[in-house]
Amino acid sequence: MRTIGISLLFLSIFAVLCVYVIKTIPITIQSAIQASIQAQFEANALPGIQITMDGRDATLLGSLDSQQKINQAMKLAGGVEGVRVVMPQLTLSSQEVNPDATDSEKIPSNDSTVQ
């Protein structure tokens, strides 16, 4: 009888530990992915991008000054191990205008959202 009681105690402890591990591992992985993306942005001079995570899906929020930098941010985030999907919600803060372009060729400088 005592053996059954001890077995039930150990089984209960094991079940509690399993629940704890199952709940904490995804948060740890998500935080590690987010930190890796942020490190890539810092190493490649892409400041000011906010990263939110939903599981392994990354959403990029912020404003960059060129489409090239937006594309670079998307590529860097997508290249981080563990990232499943990158969703851009980045805006262009300004656009380069060719000073020799005619008025009809110039691009307006108002913000536009890249989706």
Quickly name the level 1 CATH class: Alpha Beta
**Low-confidence blocks of residues:** 96-115
Approximately how much helix is present in the residues?
40-55%
Mean pLDDT: 78
Specify the biggest β-sheet.
4 strands, mixed
| Named CATH architecture | 2-Layer Sandwich
What is the CATH fold-level name? Answer: Histidine-containing Protein, Chain: A
Strand fraction equals 15-25%
Please state the overall shape, judged from the principal axes of the Cα atoms: rod-shaped
Order of helices and strands: HEEHEE
What separation lies between the terminal Cα atoms?
Answer: 65 Å
Number of strands: 4
Strand order of the largest sheet: 1-2-3-4
How many structurally independent domains? Answer: 1
Main structural class: alpha+beta
Number of helices: 2
Query: Taking Cα atoms only, what radius of gyration do you get, to the nearest Å?
Result: 23 Å
